[in-house]
Specification:
alpha/beta, 8-stranded mixed β-sheet, 12 helices, 8 strands
């Protein structure tokens, strides 16, 4: 099954929530009522008030410039507006300098460990030698869960005992990566609340170890968000952005929400690319994000 079909299936709940409204909109007149209803529909999709208003105003301006008179024609213009909003930063992972290091952050319960396991499997299929690092030493059984995923994905893992210093585990993982000629190191981290200073101090310590031990390595810091949390997820993202310096977002459980518009709000308000989306439970249900196909599936 291709990206478009998986996205379309993953957005079923969102389409059920707003699809009828879109169909009615684009069958009507291109007037002030159209733009009012469009804003309401976009807000219902969890795009957020600011983003919904910005999209509506941009669409109005574009349609006026292009002398578009019908709502049906406006649909294609809306697609281009949304695609532009989603096209920010570098959507592909930067893994060119070995061993590339991908740090995963986010609160508990968003699917970090599962995302790491799925990405490990994807990278292995692409021919990369992958090493997992069990940097979440705070939560009981976190390393055990990651070990299970390492076995499923057919990749190696570096771990220590519960309560170990996460930065020390990262140090061991980088040493192992050099010895084993790994291409990519995927680092799990503790998912404590985003407003806890000790977690941010921990992330800073990990960053210092990486800078000292692998200064030339490609680095990514990905925030994993649960799509079903909607605007609360956007608040989390803003706080992590200030503290951790994100290079991208992974949005999980997109198939479980009726508010898929949160993807657009995140891209617009953070100017950070959505790099992967989770659209199911299967190991191959973590998909590289494609802005154009996402918008096509949504509309």
């Amino acid at each position: 099954m291709g990206f478009f079909e998986k996205i379309r299936q993953g957005l079923v709940r969102t389409k059920e929530n707003i699809g009828h409204s879109f169909d009615q909109l684009f069958a009507g007149e291109l007037d002030d009522d159209f733009y009012d209803q469009l804003e309401e529909t976009l807000i219902l999709s969890d795009m957020g008030v600011d983003t919904a208003l910005a999209v509506s105003e941009t669409l109005r301006d574009r349609c006026k410039e292009a002398h578009i008179k019908t709502a049906g024609e406006a649909r294609e213009v809306l697609k281009s507006v949304l695609t532009e909003l989603l096209t920010v930063g570098q959507p592909e992972l930067e893994l060119s300098q070995r061993p590339a290091i991908v740090l995963f952050i986010g609160v508990n319960g968003v699917g970090k460990t599962t995302t790491i396991g799925k990405l490990a499997a994807r990278l292995r299929v692409e021919g990369k030698r992958v090493l997992l690092c069990a940097g979440d030493t705070f939560r009981a059984a976190a390393a055990d869960q990651l070990t299970i995923w390492s076995e499923r994905s057919g990749v190696e893992i570096v771990r220590q005992h519960e309560g170990a210093d996460p930065a020390a585990v990262v140090f061991d993982a980088l040493s192992a990566a050099r010895a084993r000629r790994a291409d990519v190191v995927l680092v799990d981290t503790a998912g404590r609340l985003h407003n806890k200073q000790n977690l941010m101090n921990e992330l800073n310590k990990i960053a210092r170890v990486i800078e000292r031990e692998a200064p030339e390595a490609s680095r990514e810091t990905l925030l994993v968000l649960d799509a079903t949390t909607g605007q609360n997820g956007l608040i989390q993202a803003k706080q992590f952005m200030e503290s951790a310096g994100l290079t991208g977002v992974v949005l999980t459980k997109l198939d479980g929400t009726a508010k898929g518009g949160i993807v657009i709000a995140i891209a617009r308000e953070l100017s950070v690319p959505v790099k992967f989306i989770g659209v199911g439970e299967g190991v191959d249900d973590l998909m590289p994000f494609d802005a154009k196909e996402f918008v096509e599936a949504l509309l």
